[in-house]
């Protein structure tokens, strides 16, 4: 009975074992015949992939150095083209933003400066003369910002640029500033010799960080070349929120100029004019006889502002003026900074040109006196000789240093004949 019970169990286990063996054998066969699966829907793709991979391996192993060099060159070219396209896209985006900013500019300006209002009765309407100051940005130049906090008075400072070529005149300049008692002044030194000279005389001095575009002119430039640099240098002062009274070195200070400013315009400048007409403007009639009845044409004339002595406030129009002048001087190396300064201030908007919207004031030419007024008019008039100007600018004469000393002798030391040896004009 025991033997009979074991046989059925052995018989039932044998078919199961046979099924397992058959399954393994079939699996091996299918694995060889269908490596990507028996139920794959894309045998062609699989075959193509295998073919491509084998071709790529063959190509990689057989690729010539020349072909590799060409491929690398193509990659570099495509990279450069991509960078160029990105740059063009960025520039177009910037232009779009500028166009959007300029849209309805007048309306936006009204919203910024104040609410719209109705006009008052006849004779009572006054336009806005004083533009708001910019928000100071100390990140522009932290070192200069720290210095100006120590020197400036009510965010105002006298600034002069100097290199070693004007060392003698510079000494006369700061000696009289000290004598008058002006505490808020600063010399922007254009070379190391001036830095040492100022420090040895207790004069506040500042030297900019290296800038080849400025330094090359600063080292060897003459009066006009150095004068043109101020428009680039002054920008940082205005961005920091300071009003600047820019002074050339050929100026003698006789009073504190900050006591005689109006501060109601973007730019307040001394004039090269020598009387009321030339200083403040006049109607000049142009005669053209060939026109018959219409032979007379009225024109407006005014002598230029002197770019060697002006007060400039930290406003957007003032900063735009500096940018315009500096830009033109860099593009037009033979141009004179004073001519460009006045053209940008006065030329109106017209087709193809957008004029500068800056408010300007002409200084009293007897108080802020040029050397033509002094030597041609004042010294010969008994009443005018008693007048004490705020400053005298020796701008009309090339023999600046001896005339500066004569001005000091006359106005400071009381030597009545100190101005007599000099001609009205110059012998040059």
TrEMBL record:
Compartment(s) of residence: Golgi apparatus membrane
Keyword Coiled coil: yes
Single GO MF annotation: glycosyltransferase activity
Keywords, sorted A to Z: Cell wall biogenesis/degradation, Coiled coil, Glycosyltransferase, Golgi apparatus, Signal-anchor, Transferase, Transmembrane
Membrane topology label: Single-pass type II membrane protein
PROSITE patterns: PROKAR_LIPOPROTEIN
GO cellular component terms, A-Z: Golgi membrane
Domain Nucleotide-diphospho-sugar transferase: 182-400
Protein origin, superkingdom: Eukaryota
EC number per UniProt: 2.4.2.-
Any single GO BP term: root hair cell development
Keyword Cell wall biogenesis/degradation: yes
Family that this chain belongs to: Belongs to the glycosyltransferase 77 family.
Protein name: Glycosyltransferase
Protein species of origin: Linum trigynum
The organism's taxonomic lineage, starting at the top: Eukaryota, Viridiplantae, Streptophyta, Embryophyta, Tracheophyta
């Amino acid at each position: 009975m025991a033997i009979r019970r074991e046989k059925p169990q052995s018989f039932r286990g044998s078919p199961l074992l046979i099924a397992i063996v058959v399954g393994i054998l079939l699996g091996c066969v299918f694995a060889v015949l269908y490596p990507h699966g028996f139920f794959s829907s894309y045998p062609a793709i699989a075959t193509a992939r295998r073919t491509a991979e084998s071709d790529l391996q063959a190509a990689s192993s057989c690729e010539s150095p020349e072909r590799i060099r060409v491929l690398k060159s193509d990659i570099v070219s495509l990279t450069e083209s991509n960078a160029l396209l990105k740059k063009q896209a960025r520039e177009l985006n910037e232009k779009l933003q500028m166009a959007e900013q300029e849209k309805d500019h007048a309306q936006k300006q009204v919203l910024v400066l104040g609410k719209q209002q109705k006009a008052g009765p006849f004779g009572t309407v006054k336009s806005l003369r004083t533009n708001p100051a910019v928000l100071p940005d100390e990140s522009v130049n932290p070192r200069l910002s720290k210095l100006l906090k120590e020197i400036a008075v009510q965010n105002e400072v006298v600034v002069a640029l100097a290199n070693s070529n004007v060392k003698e005149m510079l000494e006369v300049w700061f000696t009289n500033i000290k004598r008058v008692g002006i505490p808020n002044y600063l010399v922007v030194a254009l070379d190391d010799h001036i830095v040492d000279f100022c420090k040895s005389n207790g004069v506040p001095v500042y030297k900019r960080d290296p800038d080849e575009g400025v330094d090359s002119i600063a080292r060897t430039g003459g009066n006009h070349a150095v004068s043109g640099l101020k428009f680039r240098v002054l920008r940082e002062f205005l961005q920091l929120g300071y009003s600047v009274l820019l002074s050339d070195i050929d100026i003698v200070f006789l009073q504190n100029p900050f006591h005689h400013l109006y501060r109601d315009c973007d730019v307040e400048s001394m004039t090269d004019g020598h009387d009321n007409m030339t200083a403040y403007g006049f109607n000049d009639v142009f005669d053209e006889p060939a026109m018959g009845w219409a032979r007379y044409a009225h024109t407006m004339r005014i002598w230029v502002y002197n770019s060697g002595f002006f007060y400039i406030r930290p406003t957007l129009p003032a900063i735009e003026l500096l940018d315009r002048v500096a830009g033109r001087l860099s593009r037009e190396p033979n141009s004179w900074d004073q001519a460009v300064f006045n053209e940008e201030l006065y030329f109106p908007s017209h087709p193809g040109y957008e004029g500068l919207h800056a408010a300007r004031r002409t200084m009293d030419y007897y108080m802020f006196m040029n050397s033509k007024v002094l030597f041609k008019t004042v010294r010969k008039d008994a009443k005018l000789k008693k007048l004490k100007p705020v400053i005298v600018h020796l701008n009309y004469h090339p023999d600046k240093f001896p005339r500066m000393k004569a001005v000091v002798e006359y106005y400071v030391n009381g030597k009545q004949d100190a101005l007599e040896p000099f001609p009205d004009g110059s012998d040059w």
